[in-house]
Amino acid sequence: MAVLVIADHDNASLKDSTNKTVTAALALSGDVDVLVAGKDAKAAADAAAKIAGVRKVLLAESDELGQGLAEAVEATVLPLMGGYDAVLTPATSQGKNFSPRIAAKLDVAQISEIVEVVSNDTFVRPIYAGNALETVQSSDAKKVITVRATAFKAAGEGGSASVENVAAGAASAKIKFVDQQLVKSARPELAGAKIVVSGGRAMGSAEEFSKVIEPLADKLGAAVGASRAAVDAGYAPNDYQVGQTGKVVAPELYVAIGISGAIQHLAGMKDSKVIVAINKDADAPIFQVADFGLVADYKTAVPELMDALTAAGK
Amino acid sequence: MKVLVPVKRVIDSNVKARVKSDQSGVDLANVKMSINPFCEIAVEEAVRLKEKGVATEVVVVSIGPAQAQETLRQALAMGADRGVLIQSDQDLEPLEVAKVLKAVIAEEAPGVVIMGKQAIDGDNNATGQMLAALLDWPQATFASAIELSADKAKVTREVDGGLQTIEATLPAIITADLRLNEPRYASLPNIMKAKKKPLDVKEVATLGVDLKPHLKVLKVAEPAKRSAGIKVETAGDLVANLKTAGVL
Ligand SMILES: Cc1cc2nc3c(=O)[nH]c(=O)nc-3n(C[C@H](O)[C@H](O)[C@H](O)COP(=O)(O)OP(=O)(O)OC[C@H]3O[C@@H](n4cnc5c(N)ncnc54)[C@H](O)[C@@H]3O)c2cc1C
Q1: Chain B residues touching A98 at Cβ < 8 A
Q2: If you measure from the C-alpha of residue B94 to the centroid of ligand 1, how many angstroms do you get, rounded to a whole number?
Q3: How many angstroms separate the alpha carbon of residue A255 from the centre of ligand 1?
Q4: For B196-245, how does the pLDDT look when each residue is reduced to its tens digit (9 = 90+)?
Q5: From atom 26 of ligand 1, which residue's Cα is the shortest distance away?
């Protein structure tokens, strides 16, 4: 059995979710290749070649692949699938965009967001906002899988795979990239951060959100997250949303400030190692999953926490 | 332009799903069911397009049990014109749903399909993309803004890292994300009116689509429970505890 992993990257570098997906792939087979589809992405391909256990790296480049258009990724991957029994993609917004297309074209099911590989054909995946774990067995000859990266350890370095160019698939004339507005930040990326500080509806405004959440995040070297309510209200960009329908995170430390702990929010953070909640309502559901709860108004609690961290040498 | 909106009947988003004790699935007996929230957003968008004069007809289609008629009536009460139920008592996988929708689209010939990005039961986030691939139509997933003209859809998409704008030549598949709009509440008069709107029911078997399952559910288990920890009194106590826990 040979497995293709489609890398998550920004052309210049590889995202940690790729290493984690390689770990899931290695649980299926020893023959794991990585496809880097992008534009001017040699650096990302070279990084993939260093992942321990990778047999070969395939590099496909075109403008449309650089723009991440799903049609172009699918057209690149399909001709390669003759040589593979499974294709694994991190369940990022990009992976979720193109992977089901590959499944449909191969006439197979997609096994979405797996958190465990039980055997070659059997996988565990969360359903109902993570309130249930479903074990499914696939009868398809080829498996198309997206991987919840937080559930797997990152494959280490030490590999020296070759990098081979492959043809970029033809782009669709029916779709055109117009532009993008990416959030620029010097902070660690939310999906892979060791510490995450998230703010909720309690912030009340974008100004308050940045005044309260960002300095605390910076003091801790943390990424910033938010609840859906905070994103909907425009306090934080969409990219910050943690939850069932946003990003799933599992940092060492997750700090929820002014977040009630709705099922959909918990779905995105309840696998964090240590959870801290600051909320003025002692009955807020977030306290049912928090290791350390502080029942307080964040307006006084966060400045005190900043001082306590300073006192502790942070 | 005709807009087609697929809608799914799912567990209400305020209800916590419970696993059956024999691990055969999630217990849905006597549980409140509703229109999938993302489908509701898609219906709202289609109705707004009609109100703006861009869409001429909004057709809602559901694939599911007889009770999915309630879901369709809910969409009709929001302002959709006509409903189609493809009745199936078998729980279909996203690929099979996409195949059934493809057959419906062959009959209805819509100019655009707007649908939810994800159903909150299976959490697959796959049907729209599969449908686009099967039809060879362009896709614009995770939409937070849609500008429709006679032959193009300009769509702003929520992606990791921010927002992306793409332009698709119609017909196309668009999947709705949370920020696309805030769905209206149906008024009582509109709920009454919806009862008289046309709703066709067809058996899924009459479509001649291959519905063979690809996945077998071996078991559905409850995830490990996280137990509540302790309450701390002060920010200082919190920092001390975090140091002990080794996360600072
Ligand atoms: C289809 C669907 C998908 C969804 N997906 C997501 C998702 O991915 N992620 C997500 O987060 N949500 C999601 N939601 C929304 C979710 O159900 C909740 O509505 C949302 O998480 C609530 O956000 P919140 O906790 O910030 O706001 P609220 O629930 O309003 O909570 C605010 C909290 O702040 C506390 N508070 C207020 N003032 C203060 C103060 N001064 N000091 C301290 N505490 C204070 C309050 O006690 C309260 O607990 C989804 C919902 C649906 C229907």
Answers
A1: 129
A2: 29
A3: 14
A4: 999 999 999 999 999 999 999 999 999 998 888 999 999 999 999 999 99
A5: A200
CB A76 near ligand 1, within 6 Å = no
Task: Give the percent of chain B with pLDDT over 90.
Answer: 98
Whether this prediction's pTM lies above 0.95 is answered by yes
- Residue B11, min C-alpha distance to chain A (Å): 9
Count interface pairs A-B at CB distance under 8 A: 269
- Over the stretch A161-208, which tens digit does the pLDDT of each residue have? 999 999 999 989 999 999 999 988 899 999 999 999 999 999 999 999
Residues A279, A255 contacting (CB under 8 angstroms): no
Asked if A103's CB is within 8 angstroms of B16's CB, the reply is: no
- Do β-strands B139-148 and B152-159 pair in parallel, antiparallel, or remain unpaired? antiparallel
pLDDT digits (tens, 9 = 90+) for A215-259: 999 999 999 999 999 999 999 999 999 999 999 999 999 999 999
- Is the CB of B215 less than 8 angstroms away from the CB of A137? yes
**Which residue's C-alpha comes closest to atom 50 of ligand 1?**
A264
Amino acid letter for position A203: M
> Tell me, what's the ipTM?
0.97
| Distance of residue A46 Cα from the nearest chain B Cα, in angstroms | 23
- A108, amino acid identity: V
